Amino acid sequence: MEEQLSLLELVLGASFTVQLVMGILLAASMLSWYMIVQRFIYLRNAKEEAYDFEERFWSGIDLAQLYREGSEKTADGHAILGMESIFRAGFKEFSRLAQQSEMDSEAIVEGARRAMRVAMLREEERLERHLAFLASVGSTSPYIGLFGTVWGIMHSFRGLANATQATLATVAPGISEALVATAMGLFAAIPAVLAYNRFAAKVEVFSNRYDTFGDEFSSILYRQAYALRAKERKAG
């Protein structure tokens, strides 16, 4: 309890500039922790939804039925994200282009691939949300804390000009106050850096997974488009 009280006294006794630096670092730390928790929950849910959708997709269900199920979920207010969003974008464009008899199989599939690429970019933006802030906190917080430390030490040594006798006991409180800013900068930076590296690696895994799904789904659509056009030519 005494250590906590002495630390609080150091913060309250610091100069206004150092207190401002500490306030900025405290706010940055709280915001980064909020974003860390929010990203953790979002990526965990995205992983679960991707597994559930892949299991449903490869179960042999009719793609039109799978699309209708997604439409029903959307009508009920459930947001469609991740891999299912990519599927819906591709299948919707495929169905629209397949109705145009003048388009060949390659053009139909290429149109569906473009729609899926747009959906992938949109999903990657959702996955990377807040990561730039975490990277900024991780890279700048130590320097902000160091600025507070340098300023505090300068303030302490400036006070020695009016002191009749310069001793360690005279400058120690001021230097201690200043070093608290460095400690707070590291406290804000370390979790942000660790979280950023962890989340960036997960986003890369999701991106590769989405690309793989897009290629596999494109192959299925190409077979369907080829079979559809062959059937139309035979009927004609």
How would you sum up this structure, described in words?
With about 240 residues, the protein is mainly alpha-helical. The chain has one domain (about 20-235). The protein has seven helices and no strands. It has helices at about 1-15, 15-55, 65-75, 80-100, 105-125, 130-160, 170-235. Helix 2 (about 15-55) packs antiparallel against helix 6, helix 3 (about 65-75) crosses helix 4 (about 80-100) and helix 6 (about 130-160) packs antiparallel against helix 7. The relative contact order is 0.15. Residues about 1-5 have low confidence and may be disordered. Part of the Tol-Pal system, which plays a role in outer membrane invagination during cell division and is important for maintaining outer membrane integrity. The Tol-Pal system is composed of five core proteins: the inner membrane proteins TolA, TolQ and TolR, the periplasmic protein TolB and the outer membrane protein Pal. They form a network linking the inner and outer membranes and the peptidoglycan layer. It holds the Pfam family MotA_ExbB. Keywords: Cell cycle, Cell division, Cell inner membrane, Cell membrane, Membrane, Transmembrane, Transmembrane helix. InterPro entries: ExbB/TolQ_transport (IPR050790), MotA_ExbB_proton_chnl (IPR002898), Tol-Pal_TolQ (IPR014163).
Question: Which keywords apply here?
Answer:
single chain, 236 residues, mainly alpha, 7 helices
